[in-house]
Amino acid sequence: MSEVSPLIFARGQGYSVSEDFCPCRAAVEMGENMSKRLKLISATDAEMEERSFPNPYPDWDQGVLTSNSGADVGYNEPLDAEGKVSTAFQNKVQNKIKDLLQQMEEGLKTADPHDFSTYTGWTGIALLYLQLHRVSNEASHLQRALDYVKRTMRILNGRKVTFLCGDAGPLAVGAVVHHKLNNTADSRDCLSRLLQLQRSVLSVDSEMPDELLYGRAGYLYALLYINKEIGADTVDEGTITKVVTAIIESGKNMSAEQKKMDRCPLLYEWHKKQYIGAAHGMAGIYYMLMQPGAKVQPDMLSEVVRPSIDYVRHKRFRSGNFPSSLSNESDRLVHWCHGAPGVIHMLLMAHKVFKEEKYLKEAIECADVIWQRGLLRKGYGICHGTAGNGYAFLSLYKVTQDKKYLYRACKFAEWCLGYGTHGCRIPDRPYSLFEGMAGAIHYLSEMEKPEESCFPAFELVPVN
Ligand SMILES: [Zn+2]
């Protein structure tokens, strides 16, 4: 695909480039545009071909571990004979992490000094160091996280409220880092500033969307993250309920407006489009509403959330992948932000909450699509890259304990070990958590304790 800058492209489409212009949306719109052109010259295989690399790895072979034929041994590498991630692979990953961390630190010297966000800026780097501290217990990582948190505190701008793109990210991560270092006063200060943001989130006539990147669900995540990391009730239930209610009311209003109350009681739009994926769409919003910490009442979950999930499920492609929006009918994007790698998390949570096999079955089909089409030419990042797609396998592994998914997660990590060698597109923020190198390092670091893996700024609790 030609290297069209999102900005040039956006102008070409006739909408203005606002400050909340999102590269994920560019990906979808650009995809739709490309697709129209491609339809004239080739079949869909070519489109898929150019978005992902053909997966070069053999899939998990159930027979290998029990087989006595010596010839097959080693087929399921990098898992060892017990089905654990082998020590040799762990060492390779650790060495690569060291190497990439150094490259990242060097590269960050030229990064935008004003970008405090989790998505592309300094808070994302702080989160990476928190993760490295979590898996290694090394104090120096926590100190690095603090350095980056301090940097963000000077440049917050009060414009947005979410964890990924707004002030809530740095404030929530700041509260957690200070808490871990026993800086109680600083932690409380971050927390109280975080809670002050709720005014604009709760305002009914605000133009605020509900999705994860710029909307209410992204603020809700910040509150739930605090309670997970610092302790239940650090943010009181009343506050969480108010935010949850605002999200539900907004979805009901949109559904009524579109006369879809019988089919999809909670309907959401972002920039006038009904997106499905985790970043801008309904999968991300429903996923947050189903979190145990959100304390949505069981009758509300079954009467309002569940039929909405089922409505979205019916938009599934035959391949098992999901469209980027309700009106989009071409099966192209396999990203966390748009497609199966984001929707799978909603399905796994629905399986946990509603205890129906159909959700798990479709999650497994998502994983198959991701295995086939998930090694992305867009790069190794979390949002629309191979690392974000690898998290789908880790989440499915945590639910099923099926080694097949641990194996697939390792193979996507193996792909990330070749960072920069596949000729992928270079992202705009090449060292950031959601677009670039920090995200790949975050994913690689999960190989040490895959049972405890956690998609950053999204997953909250182990699903099983
Ligand atoms: Zn994306």
TrEMBL record:
<dbReference type="GO" id="GO:0005975">
    <property type="term" value="P:carbohydrate metabolic process"/>
</dbReference>
<dbReference type="GO" id="GO:0005886">
    <property type="term" value="C:plasma membrane"/>
</dbReference>
<dbReference type="InterPro" id="IPR012341">
    <property type="entry name" value="6hp_glycosidase-like_sf"/>
</dbReference>
<dbReference type="GO" id="GO:0005737">
    <property type="term" value="C:cytoplasm"/>
</dbReference>
<dbReference type="InterPro" id="IPR007822">
    <property type="entry name" value="LANC-like"/>
</dbReference>
<comment type="subunit">
    <text>Interacts with an array of inositol phospholipids such as phosphatidylinositol 3-phosphate (PI3P), phosphatidylinositol 4-phosphate (PI4P) and phosphatidylinositol 5-phosphate (PI5P). PIP-binding enhances membrane association.</text>
</comment>
<protein>
    <recommendedName>
        <fullName>LanC-like protein 2</fullName>
    </recommendedName>
</protein>
<keyword id="KW-0597">Phosphoprotein</keyword>
<dbReference type="GO" id="GO:0005634">
    <property type="term" value="C:nucleus"/>
</dbReference>
<comment type="similarity">
    <text>Belongs to the LanC-like protein family.</text>
</comment>
<dbReference type="Pfam" id="PF05147">
    <property type="entry name" value="LANC_like"/>
</dbReference>
<dbReference type="GO" id="GO:0046872">
    <property type="term" value="F:metal ion binding"/>
</dbReference>
<feature type="binding site">
    <location>
        <position position="384"/>
    </location>
    <ligand>
        <name>Zn(2+)</name>
    </ligand>
</feature>
<feature type="binding site">
    <location>
        <position position="337"/>
    </location>
    <ligand>
        <name>Zn(2+)</name>
    </ligand>
</feature>
<keyword id="KW-0963">Cytoplasm</keyword>
<keyword id="KW-0449">Lipoprotein</keyword>
<keyword id="KW-0539">Nucleus</keyword>
<dbReference type="InterPro" id="IPR020464">
    <property type="entry name" value="LanC-like_prot_euk"/>
</dbReference>
<keyword id="KW-0519">Myristate</keyword>
<comment type="function">
    <text>Necessary for abscisic acid (ABA) binding on the cell membrane and activation of the ABA signaling pathway in granulocytes.</text>
</comment>
<keyword id="KW-0472">Membrane</keyword>
<keyword id="KW-0479">Metal-binding</keyword>
<keyword id="KW-1003">Cell membrane</keyword>
<feature type="binding site">
    <location>
        <position position="383"/>
    </location>
    <ligand>
        <name>Zn(2+)</name>
    </ligand>
</feature>
<keyword id="KW-0862">Zinc</keyword>
<dbReference type="GO" id="GO:0031179">
    <property type="term" value="P:peptide modification"/>
</dbReference>
